[in-house]
What does this fold into?
Amino acid sequence: MGKFEVQNVDSVKMYKIRKTLEELTQQSGRGTELITVYIPKGQQLHEVMTQLREEQGTADNIKSDLTRTHVVDSLAKVIQKLKLYKKTPEKGLVVFCGALPREGGGPPGSEVVKIYEIDPPKDLTTSLYRCDDHFHTDILKDMLQDDNIIGLLAIDAKDAGWGLLHGDKLEVLKQTGSGVAGKHRQGGQSAKRFQKLREMELQYYFNRVAEITREYFIDIYQVKGLIVSGPGPTKEEFVNKEYLEYRLQNNIIATIDASYSGAEGIREAFAKCSDILSNFRMVEEKKIIERLFQEINTNTGLGSYGLKEVIEMLKNNIAGTIIISDDINMSRIEKTCKRCSNIDDEFIEQGKRIARKTEIKNQPCSECKAMDSEIIDQDLIDYIALNA
It folds into this structure.
């Protein structure tokens, strides 16, 4: 069995893009005043800036004074940002800009023009300009979908199961019975007739499996490879007689002996093919988690868990690998005293950070008791990535 190579993914970069898109999706303008600009790879930036200046002229026709001001200011900010680039980034560039409410809200006119730049994770081929009441994020969201998809088929004469491995997810798609009679004939049937009927049933079953496999792994999901597993010789017969559509037949990367077929066989096949799929995020994560538990259970001192413990190891520069859940949703709040420069920090759920920042702002410095301080907050994963 050969090793199946996949494109490496910067998980921190993907997290930041995903987090930014979640934030942008929740934003809405008071009018059609939120700017979205997609610049494909290879496009000249001066062409984009020329278009945006033309849009500034068009914006003069907007009736609402506030909306007109927001649009003109946002376009100017995008143009100024693009001037900082010598050329379009290698994969393209996406810019979102608009007048957004301040933290805690406020009346119309109190909005702040904010700009977001995103380097797309894949080559951007779409050119787009929109001025709308929302940001257009769908193109970038589609880019976050994992292209490294592997199909799994676990089959024997009793049943078959289909699964999908993509990114950090193993998904069982379907399981079906074969309808093929067992190997032992019923009384009154000749052995020859029974064998012929069974072969016909098996052929019908194989054709049905091949059709479902095509539907899943070509029509619905475009898999990069197919792993076939199962007990006994059924899987080899299915593969060797080439029931599969030729694109799938040519894309089989392994045939694995297993104890189970069906849904349980999918999970078993994944466990048995980690050497082939070693670059897959889910396989990498599984190995890291197993190592963590091993270090904790053997009391080597090399494994630790819990936010407080991990942050302490990070600050002491003794953390080798840090495991973080994608949905942790926590922020670090830092308070710096302007008199004595003392720094206090704490970690809190992101939904509570605005109220907590107000509380901290109204508390004296823990060292000199001064009230004048600067408060900043930062996504936990951003903080860890910067300090790791």
In short: The longest strand covers residues 169-177. Residues 307-387 form one domain. The CA atoms of residues 215 and 221 lie 8 Å apart.
